[in-house]
Amino acid sequence: MMLHLPVLSAFRAEIVCETDAGDARVRTEQSGDALRVYLTADQSRPTFVRLNWEVENDADVLVLGDAWERSYGDLEFRRLADNDRRMPWYFIATDKTDCFCFGVKTRPHSFVSFRCTTNELSALLDCRNGGGGVSLGGREVLLAEFILKEYKNTDDFDALCDFCGQLCPDPILPDAPVFGNNNWYYAYGKSSREEILADARMTAELAAGLPAPAFEVIDDGWQLNSCAGPWLPNEKFGDMKTLADDIHAMGLRAGIWARPLSTKEKLPDDMLILRGGKRQYLDPTVKASQDMIRADIGRIRSWGFDLLKHDFSTYDLFGAWGPDMTDGPTITPDWHFADQTRTNAEIVLDLYELIKQACGDMLIIGCNTVSHLSAGLVQIARTGNDTSGREWGPTKKNGVNTLAFRLPQNKKFYLVDADCVGILGDNIPWEKNRWWLNLLAASDSALFVSAPADIADEKKKDIAAAFAAVQTPHGLRPLDRYENKTPEHWEADGKRDAF
After folding, report:
1. Which residues contact 431 (CB under 8 A, 6 or more apart)?
2. Rounded CA separation 406/260 (Å)
3. Which of 119, 416, 435, 454 is most buried, taking the most CB atoms under 10 A from its CB?
4. Which range marks the domain in which residue 293 is found?
């Protein structure tokens, strides 16, 4: 197979605007294997910048890209001849001996995706505001910094691990292993203070004597409204500060879930995003909305919680899930945020920075967050769509897939969270969930089970062993990653087919 790198400086640039390109201009700077792309415009409202390179690669070269936010069981190596999809943020191309990686550094100011064929490589930089053009007003914005790196005689998994480190030089990481219990996949939003405390007693028992404290995470269902604010406790939970105190008294850390852009409260129209003729979610470019988000998180922090899992922000901002996104984050045309002077990526970054500042010393799990924009602003990221406590299929499809193909991001962007081991009665045969449990324990990533207090002793024994295993570093890699979207063969700590 032929594998040839593009010449970084040999590209054609095209600017797309709402009407005509007019006064929109692209400027580039190159330094070694890095290319910085800037955009400015006075009156024009840019939507996209497209860069094109000529390449010459064999149809059998394999490519693997990333995902806009979470992945949905859809990551895989594809032959160039069969690759008809955009690849968000970065990709790796390999002939199984040599490889090259091409991508943009984390926290760019545009949504960037790649398309690669046998004779052309293109990058699309989505610089929209909402579903329309951005009003830069003469401001110059650094849309992205591209990095191109070649790896000779290098395993593609090792190459991608190294490349992710090149893309994110400043991750923020937890100072101890992240493991414990999250009640979602057995409770599914129906829980109570008493159940959480019973779960916490079990978690404390299973983690007894370990050097790092485990987490007890309260997912959706503690607040007044299902999956929406106001972020105040319902009658089944009562005072949240004393609940956090009771969890701490067991030697655990306390975590909690929230959806900061969604509320059932009656708010002024100008605080809400207007998209598709509807106003529903907080517009984070409005100061009153920012103040409300800051106050909600500040209240949760005042209760003494150690971790915030914030969810749904990509969907609430843009009205689309990852699989529906093509050129960029939104599929609804002709709408804008209140502040039309910033790109969508800049608005997302501002929101994540606001949440980070409001959280203070709380750890943050980003769920349904934009992966590449969250790196350096969250310590932990849910990298795949939901697993399940009801059936094995979603765990295999979503959990195993994201662990296999986004594991190179682990501790390079953030701590990867491939989602829970869901335990709801005997719906899932324990031999399957045990395999998933042990795989997570060997991955050096986050490990959460979702287990009620009354599970069988056999399961408790296996969970306790997994909790103990995450206290020391491990090495894990998928072996059948070229042929299988949900790899079954893995190497752990140098041992092949360890599971």
Report:
1. none
2. 26
3. 416
4. 179-496
CA angle 119, 123, 127 (to 5 degrees): 160
Q: Are residues 484 and 413 in the same domain?
A: yes
Q: Which of 167, 196, 216 is the last residue of a domain?
A: 167
Separation between Cα atoms, residue 337 and residue 328, nearest integer Å: 16
Residue type at position 13: A
Q: Measured between alpha carbons, how far is 207 from 437 in angstroms, rounded to an integer?
A: 15
Q: Are 312 and 262 in contact (CB under 8 A)?
A: yes
424, two tokens: 């709801």
Determine the straight-line distance between the first and last CA of the chain, rounded to whole angstroms. Answer: 33
Residue 75 in any domain: the answer is: yes
Last residue of a domain, one of 167, 189, 222: 167
User: β-strands 120-126, 111-116: how paired?
Assistant: antiparallel
Confirm if 141 and 39 have CB atoms less than 8 A apart: yes
Strand order in the sheet with 62-65: 25-31, 34-40, 140-151, 99-104, 90-94, 62-65, 78-79
In a domain, residue 109? The reply is yes
Same domain, 190 and 308: yes
Element (H, E) at 230: strand 228-233
Within-domain flag for 337: yes
Could you report the per-residue pLDDT of 308-355, keeping only the tens digit for each?
Answer: 999 999 999 999 999 999 899 999 999 999 999 999 999 999 999 999
- The predicted-structure confidence for 434-447, as pLDDT tens digits, reads as follows 999 999 999 999 99
Q: Residue 383, Cβ neighbours under 10 Å: how many? A: 34
CATH of the domain at 469: 3.20.20.70
CA distances from 13 to 9, 20, 31, 51, 123 (A): 11, 15, 18, 5, 10
Where helices occur in 396-493 by DSSP H, the ranges are: 401-406, 430-441, 457-469
Element at 242 (helix H, strand E)? helix 240-249
pTM for this structure?
A: 0.97
Q: Are 315 and 281 in contact (CB under 8 A)?
A: no
Regarding whether 432 and 323 lie in a shared domain, the answer is: yes
